[in-house]
Amino acid sequence: xxxxxxLCPDCGGTKHPGQTTFTVDLGFGVIVVRNVPAxxxxxxxxxxxxxxxxxxxxxxxxxxxxxxxxxxxxxxxPA
Length: 79
Description:
This protein is of the alpha+beta class. Helices cover 22% and strands 42% of the residues. The mean pLDDT is 91.
């Protein structure tokens, strides 16, 4: 995550480092990952996730898919 502020392409607000919640519907269930590092627009709330964070989320989703729970909630932790 970069420390510099950027402009939101959606509304022109300023994006700042923060956190978001990532949710995926797996068909048989849902995984919710909380406290995911992201750039978040202070004006509209849109968020952007770095490639390395997205890669970690893919791993968490894959693990949840294998567990086959209806609801799986996890806190984000770097690999």
